[in-house]
Amino acid sequence: MAPDTSDAAQPAFLATYLAGLPRPEHGHPGPARSVREADVDGHRIVIATSYEITVDGRPLDVHIGLSNDGSAHCHGLPAYQLPSLVDLVRVLVHTFPDEFPPPTTGHDDEAGPDTDHDTHDHAHHDHTAHDHTAHDHSEPDGGR
Amino acid sequence: MAVVRRDILRDDAARAAYIHGVRLLKHEPSSLTTGSFGIPGPSRPVYTYDLFVIWHVLAMNTAVPPGGDAGVRNAAHRGPVFLPWHRVLLRWLEAHLQRVLDDPAFGLPYWNWAADGSPAGPGGVANPAASPLWRNTPDGFGGQGAPVRGGAFAFRAADPTSFRVRIAANSSGALRQVTERGLVRRFGQSAPFGSPRLPRTADVASCFDPKADPSVTDYDRDPFDVSSHGLRNRLEGFVGPGLHNQVHLWVGGDMAPASSPNDPVFFVHHCNVDRIWEGWMRRNGRRYAPDMTAPDSLLGHRIDDPLVSPFAPADKPDTPRGVLDSTAVNSYDVLP
Ligand SMILES: [Cu+2]
Fold first, then answer.
1. What total of structural domains would you count in chain B?
2. Interface probe, candidates A6, A16, A18, A47, chain B, greatest B C-beta count within 10 A
3. Which is nearest to A85 in space by CA: A53, A123, A124, A46?
């Protein structure tokens, strides 16, 4: 039976709409760039900033924007606007541990996601406690 | 008849119905698969609940105006459409919940987080992690964890009916599949990773107090971005005490990335944000800015610009003006 894409009450309607939205471009080759613009006394100010960020020697491929007050943000963390770019990258590494494999061993243990970790020891980031893809076996999703 | 949105901390029936409806949507096939949305990896079914995750991620990656920088303003955040766009998102979720619950009178509950963020009495200390919202019972949200192990959204590896995160956003804000993991929450992390506290009642009151900040009688002000004065940016949380942003930061885990609707608390959080907006409009009128005289650089944020939302018929798009008064569709039991 074909799903009903004309009835707004049915999930196929929203699904079809979303599937038709333009796909955002990701991946910005080369150094990240931020352009800030402002006006003063009828003059136009343009400040273009390029920065190269590496984590464990690997380039960080993320679009970071600077606001006119100097604070930094990125698409990956919509609710964060931080005065320090260093802190922003620290939050990225902490929030997306599976994108930043541990530099020493290169391989994680087989810990599943049931690696709870109730003491919030953020200064000493425990990779295994946050890694959700270490066991990323290619089974179909169980939630059917 | 307008449905009534109630306080999830005080209304056990509304909380139980919301949880039940979310679990139904989480297992209802949407008819499309991950490939239809350009999500890399093997093709897997996409379920109705997860459409809302995709929608949020796509909207916040959509630069408005087209060709602009989604990091300056996007179709969901960092500008005037923050409140109207999320109002539309909530309305769609509420409609789908009404459908699967077979209850046209169901109103999305709101989480009055300032009640949990405020001390119970003078000299007391707030303990938001102890809120009844996070009860580990089948009608509770469960508390923090990696993964969350209690409540209705607990992860049990062997139980395919237990709550799973299937689609998330990566550090670039792009959609990706995740396999077999549960929801993650990390309450009250310290800065810069999170926020050790939730907003308080007095923080919410600052949205209505022109003595503290005269700009709060305006909806939004030039330059209409994260540096703006006015209600929208104070409530979104880039200026002032933090409000909306601070709640994402306090909950942490899956509430931090662009895929934050993965945590069912997202919708009851945003329902409260919408309620505060409604409370502001009760005092200040159904006013919005910018109007259509604003330059093209604000296209997508002006009062009659289409929002990134589905609509029918196609010639009558949702706009900020069109959603300013939704009292015919829903109302709140109490406005702040
Ligand atoms: Cu939010």
1. 1
2. A18
3. A53
User: Of A11, A16, A63, which has the smallest distance from its Cβ to B48's Cβ?
Assistant: A11
Is B64 a member of any domain? yes
Chain centroid, CA B75 distance in Å:
14
Least CB–CB distance from B192: residue in A82, A133, A136 = A82
Model-level pTM?
0.89
Assign B211 to helix, strand or coil. Answer: coil
The ipTM is: 0.93
Q: Is the separation of the CB atoms in B231 and B220 below 8 Å?
A: yes
Is B178–A113 a contact, with Cβ atoms under 8 angstroms apart? Answer: no
Task: Report d(CA B262, CA A33) in Å as an integer.
Answer: 30
Of the partner residues A8, A96, A115, the one whose CB lies closest to the CB of residue B171? A96
pLDDT tens string for chain A (144 positions)?
A: 566 677 888 999 999 999 998 887 765 556 677 888 888 999 999 999 888 899 999 988 888 888 888 899 988 899 999 999 999 999 999 999 989 988 775 444 433 333 344 333 333 333 333 333 333 333 333 332
B229 contact A CB<8A: no
User: How many angstroms from the chain centroid is the CA of residue B38?
Assistant: 24
In a domain, B128, yes or no: no
- In our burial notation (b when 16+ CB lie closer than 10 A, e otherwise), range B20-50 reads bbbbbbbbbebbbbbebbebeeeebbbbbbb
Asked if the structure places residue B329 within a domain, the reply is no
| Phi, psi (deg, nearest 5) at residue A110 | -90, 20
Q: CB–CB of B172 and A61 under 8 A?
A: yes
Backbone angles phi and psi of B57, in degrees to 5: -65, -45
Name the residue range of residue B229's domain. 3-118+136-285
| Cβ(B187)–Cβ(B49) below 8 Å | no
Q: Measured between alpha carbons, how far is residue B87 from residues B81, B91, B268 in Å?
A: 10, 6, 12
CATH number of the domain that residue B240 is part of: 1.10.1280.10
In the three-class reduction of DSSP (H, G, I as helix; E, B as strand; rest coil), residue A44 is classed as strand
Tell me if A115 sits within 8 A of A126, measured CB to CB.
no
d(CA B308, CA B304) in angstroms, rounded, equals 13
Q: Residue B84: helix, strand or coil by DSSP?
A: helix
Q: Where are the domains of chain A?
A: 24-143
What token pair was written down for B127? 């303990």
